[in-house]
Amino acid sequence: VVAHEVTRNYQGHLALATIATDGKLRVRHQQSPTGDWSGWKELNSHVQLHGMATNEDGRLELVYFQEAHGWMHCWEHTPGRNWTGNISLGRSQHRSLFDRRYQRGKDQLRPLTIGRQANGQLMVFALNNDNRIYHIAQGGSLNGWSDWEMFPIAQGYQLKVVSNYDGRLELFHYGNGRAAWHHHQTVPNGSWSNYHSRGGNIGYLEATRNGDGRLELFGINQKHELIHCYQNTPGGNWSGWLALHHQAKEIASVINNINELAVFIITPDGKVCYSHQSSGSYPNTDVARGGHSG
């Protein structure tokens, strides 16, 4: 596995989408809360990267970049049911902004992230060839989406968007000096604040919202060690960076159906493993050691 995304489906079960070394995009899901997983379903091939989110009506949606066709997306016809075919996303003149970056096959970072605004519309953020941030949103005239627009902010090297406790989106990335940076919507569905630094010395990041509304940020440092920091209260001040005693090269996270934070990692040897918060770990958000692989 070279890339993975995780979210919750309409039943609250975890859903996992991966890109394998053969470029095939596959999905699977839990069959019951905290239970066994379904088999893999193959959706596409020759995929460079992907993002996954849950629509307001419960349907899962995937956005991905395909070697032959550029930006594409597909979604469940109804929650938990069969998937559509490949649908183009974005006008062809914008493909040149992105294709050199992804077809090189050297970028293992997450240059794509999807958030859902307070009004229910999905918003996709992506890095182009020059590490500039572009975005596209549901609600436009192009197959129900807007056209790609450049985000008027500094360059980034990886992206993750997450919803605050009050519905405002918050966008994280790391930049020059390997420090984590973030900014947020000043009001739900509204304009954006200036940037703030969270420091750190990271080469990969993941952001999520805990069950109690606090945001949490995971990173991988230059020694491949998994570290994290978090808000002490929803919308409040942040902790410093703390070690989680795992080796990783990629991270994804989601809240499970019992309101615990579950973290999925790809280890340096390519295994997919997961771990979850220990019962009663709030407010320190210690993630249980050990995990499971598959």
Can you describe what's shown?
The chain is mainly beta and 294 residues long. It is 2% helix and 45% strand. The strands form six sheets. The protein has a four-stranded antiparallel β-sheet with strand order 1-2-3-4, with no helix packed on it. A four-stranded antiparallel β-sheet has the order 5-6-7-8. β22 and β23 (272-276) form a beta hairpin. The longest helix has 5 residues, at 99-103. The model is unreliable at 101-109 and 280-294 (pLDDT under 50).
Query: Main sheet: which strands, in order across?
Result: 1-2-3-4
Alpha-carbon distance between the two ends: 11 Å
How many strands appear in the DSSP assignment? 24
Radius of gyration based on Cα positions:
18 Å
The structural class is mainly beta
What would you call the quaternary organization? single chain
Overall mean pLDDT score?
80
Query: What are the low-pLDDT stretches, counting only 5+ consecutive residues below 50?
Result: 101-109, 280-294
Strand content: 35-45%
**Gross geometry:** globular
Q: Provide the succession of SSEs.
A: EEEEEEEEHEEEEEEEEEEEEEEEE
Largest sheet properties: 4 strands, antiparallel
Alpha plus pi helix count: 1
Secondary structure blueprint with pairings:
Blueprint: E1 3-8, E2 14-19, E3 25-29, E4 41-44, E5 47-54, E6 60-66, E7 70-75, E8 87-88, H1 99-103, E9 112-116, E10 122-127, E11 133-142, E12 149-150, E13 160-163, E14 169-174, E15 180-184, E16 196-199, E17 202-209, E18 215-221, E19 225-230, E20 242-247, E21 250-255, E22 261-266, E23 272-276, E24 292-293
Antiparallel strand pairs: 1-2, 2-3, 3-4, 5-6, 6-7, 7-8, 9-10, 10-11, 11-12, 13-14, 14-15, 15-16, 17-18, 18-19, 19-20, 21-22, 22-23, 23-24
